[in-house]
Amino acid sequence: MALEAVGLEQNYGTQRVLRGLTFSVRAGEIYALLGGNGAGKSTTLNLFLGLARPTAGSARVCDVEVGSDPAAARARIAYVPENVALYEHLTARENIDYLLTLARADTAGALIEEALDAVGLVREAWDRRLGGYSKGMRQKVAIALAIARRVPVLLLDEPTAGLDPRATADFHRLLETARIRGVATLMVTHDLLGAAEVADRIGFLAEGRIEAELIAEGTERFDVRALHQRYLQAGAAA
Amino acid sequence: MSGRPSLVGRVAREEWRALARNRVAVVAGLILAVLLAGSALLCVEQRNAIEASRERHQASSDRQFDLQPDRHPHRMVHYGQFVFRPLSTLAFFDRGVDSFTGHTVFLEGHRQNSANFSEARQSSLLLRFGELTPAFVLQTLAPLLVIFLAYGAVASERERGTLRLLAAQGLGASDMLAGKLLAHGGAAGLILAPAALALLIAALLGWAPPGPAVLLLVIYGLYLAIWAVMAVLVSSLARRSRDALILLVSIWMVLVVLIPRTLPEAAARLRTQTLTRIETDIAIHADLNKIGDSHDPDDPYFSAFKAKILAQYGVRRVEDLPVQWAGLVGMEGERLTSQLFDRYAREAFAREQAQNRFVRGFGAVSPVIALRQASMSLAGTDIESHQDFLDQVERYRYAFVQSLNRMQVEQIPNQGAGEDPRIAAANWKRVPSFAYVAPDVLRLAGGRIAANLAVLIVWLVALLALCAPVARRLREDAR
Questions:
Q1: B166 interfaces chain A, CB cutoff of 8 Å
Q2: Which residues of A touch B11 (CB under 8 A)?
Q3: Fewer Cβ atoms within 10 A, N terminus or C terminus of chain A?
Q4: Closest C-alpha among B245, B149, B215 to residue B457
Q5: Are A40 and A205 in contact (CB under 8 A)?
Q6: Across-strand partners of A203?
């Protein structure tokens, strides 16, 4: 299993954020974790990234226990935050090169160019500083970084927030490409339509645990109306 | 720090790239570099001009003394002699107290005059804000540039959200902090570079003493490193870059402006009052009266002195002495007054020392105080170097006056000298000129320099010790 949460619990003081969260994501699968504000989505990502230690339970990345070896777990993950935070004074190429170095990944120029090409960022923009980039272009750089790292797991935090429909569609195509390469993707989102379009499975997070899980079926994949109903129920429970 | 040099170095390199691409930072850095290089060149020029002027005046004063006509030696005692304090070579870097203490002393018999003609008295009040020397630029303005370059080092990562991104790439908070410290330590080194170049050139050309020049570099390097570490730490703790900047500028105002300027005032108020010049003269006069009156035949001290001299020469009356009695009394009087002068001068200096110790004690509160003291000591422009000059001057004054008194004793007849006895003008050339020996500052102020250096090191180590808890806090913030 590429990603596995088993009975994860996380308390912040008296607040119980996660209460026995259990789910898993296979290689080549896109898992959308839906939930309202404060449902524990970001905490779940933090636990997989090793940025927090669970109160109980375990988080595993490609069979590596995050709590016992967070560095090894992080080495297998590419993470794209909600607000893509990159360096404005650096070009796309320099951003990726710097962050790949910090991740101790291969920084070969050809690899970076291949990743930038894969995300469809126009070649003229590669050596321009990010100061003048749109949000969609930054998103592409962040995804290019994830691709260039060639890791088996992709964590996405509200990846389509603030993107226009065309950029969202481009982004979904990138996720399809990642899926074909066998990358396991966990995306936490509010975007029901986006999740319905690309996810293989959708988990509804409420009160710190998966309240319901739906699996894509047939050409319609998901019943959006049913999804919406589920989402509202999960939100009410949260 | 967990110590992954390549990652730490890469973080530092990116920080340098960010600084190099920040136009405002580059312009500010260039302005400071120009200011530093310009002040060094101007101060070398100014120092050489002052030194040449003092040498010229000293030569002129010596020549005028030598050209005096036949005279009674006691008139020459009161004609006196001027001496001018030569400037140390490193005074170009730090003028220290030279502008305030005066550089010219008028030497005469029966009096110990203080140094006069300080530039502070002849210049506008602006001088008290600080002369534009390399020391002033590095002590006061360079920390502002260090702050300006480093206030956003970590706070901007937090604001941008890249703190979390870095953590997600597997970069440890301690490695990130080490990289930022390395970058801003390096930037501080770059700020110091023009001054370092000036000092090294001066030392390599044999113009400035190499030991003090190198030590000056070390203390200023430590000082700027303290500011760099402080700025990065504050930046790591602040939520926003703006908060970090406000806090750091406040710290700068307290440490660089407020404390160093209020402490000397506090020292003067807290310590015993220093006697004024007139009060000192009255006290010396009273003490002299207690010793005795050479004109009073019944005075016990001078009666005993007379008896000793008569016995020494094997005569019964002063009129029978083979040397001039008035000259001998003059020599003894000079010896007694000089002892008193020395005592009062020592007491005054001890009071000043106590005030200085009080101020130095606050080096633990503000590294600027420790830096200034060490800088002046190494440049040979501190109050102790000035005191060393005054000591040499007083030794010379005593020898000068006594050599003239001896001429009176030996060359003016004891009896029947006439109404206007004189000796040949050639005698004045035999009086040696004042030859100032510049002190070895490491010997003169070694203890103080070491103490101030230790204060700076303790500051730096204490700040570096805070890096571990700050890194832990950063790890929490990355969540």
A1: yes
A2: 102
A3: N
A4: B215
A5: yes
A6: A33, A213
Decide: B184 and B228 in contact? Cβ < 8 Å.
yes
Query: Is the CB of residue A74 less than 8 Å away from at least one CB of chain B?
Result: yes
pLDDT of residue B464: 97
Token reading at B394: 């007083």
CA atoms within 13 A on the CB side of B431: 30
Is the separation of the CB atoms in A228 and A235 below 8 Å? no
Pure H helices in A78-217: 92-102, 109-118, 135-149, 165-180, 192-198
Let me know if B436 is exposed, middle or buried by CB neighbors in 10 A (0-12, 13-18, 19+). middle
CA–CA dist B162, B153 (Å, integer): 12
Chain B contact set for A133 (CB, 8 A): none
User: A98: which chain B residues are within 8 Å (Cβ-Cβ)?
Assistant: 10, 14
Closest CA to B408 of B15, B74, B151, B60: B74
Q: Please state, in angstroms and rounded to a whole number, the distance separating the CA atoms of residues B401 and B395.
A: 10
CA B235, distance to chain mean position in Å, is 35
Q: Strand order in A64-65's β-sheet?
A: A15-25, A3-12, A56-61, A64-65
The pLDDT score that the predictor gives to residue B2 is 43
Other CB atoms within a 10 A radius of the CB of residue B278 amount to 8
The amino acid at residue B448 is R
**Nearest by Cα to B441 from B357, B385, B390:** B385
Count of residues in chain A = 238
Record the tokens describing residue B69, joined without a space: 């006509």
Q: Report how far residue B244's alpha carbon sits from residue B236's, in angstroms, rounded to the nearest whole number.
A: 8
Q: How far apart are CA B144 and CA A197, in angstroms?
A: 54
Tokens of A127: 């050596």
Q: Which of A71, A89, A101 sits opposite B10 (nearest CB)?
A: A101
Residues from chain B contacting residue A85 (CB–CB below 8 Å) = 160-162, 164-165
* Domain extent listing, chain B: 5-270+323-477
CB pairs under 8 A between A and B: 61
Strand order in the sheet with A184-189: A77-80, A153-157, A184-189, A30-35, A201-206, A209-215
Question: Tell me, what's the pLDDT at A235?
Answer: 62
> Touching check for B238 and chain A: CB below 8 Å?
no
Domain extent listing, chain A: 88-150
Q: Do A103 and B164 touch (CB under 8 A)?
A: no
A6–B contact, CB cutoff 8 A: no
Q: How far is A99 from chain B (nearest CA, A)?
A: 7
ipTM for this model: 0.81
Q: Which residues contact B312 (CB under 8 A, 6 or more apart)?
A: none
What is the model's pTM? 0.82
Instruction: Kindly report the number of other CB atoms within 10 A of residue B440's CB atom.
Output: 13
User: Among residues A233, A165, A154, A205, which one has the least CA distance to residue A39?
Assistant: A205
For residue A178, give the amino acid letter: A
> How far, in Å, CA of B19 to CA of B13, rounded?
10
Distance CA B391, CA B352 (A): 15
- Number of alpha carbons in the 13 Å side-chain half-sphere of residue B422: 9
- The answer to whether A51 contacts B17, with C-beta atoms less than 8 Å apart, is no
* Residues B348, A42: Cα–Cα separation, whole Å: 71
Task: Supply the pLDDT for residue B438.
Answer: 86
- What are the residue ranges in chain B where pLDDT is below 70? 1-5, 114-130, 267-277, 293-295, 297, 478-479
Task: Tell me the HSE value of B429 on the side-chain side, using a 13 A CA sphere.
Answer: 5
Interface of B with A in 373-402 (CB under 8 A): none
| E strand map for B193-336 | none
